[in-house]
Amino acid sequence: MSMGRGLDSFFKDAKEVKDILETKDQETNQVSLKEIFPNKNQPRKVFDQEELEGLAASIKEHGVLQPLILRKTQDGYQIIAGERRYRAAKLAGLDKVPVLVKDISDQQADAISLIENLQREDLNPIEEAQALKAMMETHKLTQQDLADLIGKNRSSIANLLRLLNLEKEVQGYLAQGDLTFSHGKLLLKIKDPKKQVAKARDIIKKGQTILETEENLDNKKPKSQEEKDIFIRDVEEQLTRCLGTKVRLKTQGRVKKIQIDYYNNDDLERIMEQMMGEGHEGL
């Protein structure tokens, strides 16, 4: 698989990946764990220790039910798919694991790892953003290409990629689950690196919700739900759900306003599509 051939070739590669990952009815071999090593380009960097221990306990009782997929290199066997099983098998004290060895290139190995992980639902936001960025750079894809490929809208792709502009310490908090994706989007408003990190630490320390964080960033005191008219609250909640972004109804004297938050042009385009339909002329 050569690099930079565009979306059509990538769809072809994705089909090849599906065939490679299909392990049913294929003959497996046993390979020593000492000869196996992870792919350094694996998008998933954080492995939950409690989940690994649970899988290790299952492996002790039932063995490794699904073989690892490897490729032979000069250094041994590189993992193409199954690093979580590899780690759990080591915890379980196994010497060998069942494997399928595939003859593929470096580029194919990286593509398989990317596609397999993007199909999972347990990547943290930073891992997913890094995987998307790598996929775009390797295969010369646009954000819209990616959106079509993995079934996300373009604004979701853009918002994920923007998380990589956060300070490294803040990215670490998202990767560890101390902050959510929505917290990360809000923290992007803080351009000063030291203030951004300080605010992230403060959010974690105080256990702030998204609403509390947003109110605080706007230099407003958090309002209790009782302070708002129940009808206004209901309308705000309905509009927020409909548009997929924060909506507020405000009163300034006799003037009534609807405030709709957006974070970039892609996000604005998505909101316009929601309000005006896909046939609108766009920005």
UniProtKB/TrEMBL annotation:
PROSITE patterns to which the protein is assigned, alphabetical: HTH_CROC1
Keyword Nucleotide-binding attached: no
Spans traversing the lipid bilayer: none
Subcellular location: Cytoplasm, Nucleoid
UniProt keywords, alphabetically: Chromosome partition, DNA-binding
Annotated GO MF terms: DNA binding
CDD domains: HTH_XRE (cd00093), SPO0J_N (cd16393)
Gene: parB
Keyword hit for DNA-binding: yes
Cellular component, GO, one term: chromosome
Major localization class: cytoplasm
HTH cro/C1-type domain location: 132-162
Family stated for the protein in its record: Belongs to the ParB family.
Protein's name according to its UniProt entry: Probable chromosome-partitioning protein parB
Any one GO biological process: chromosome segregation
Source organism, top-level taxon: Bacteria
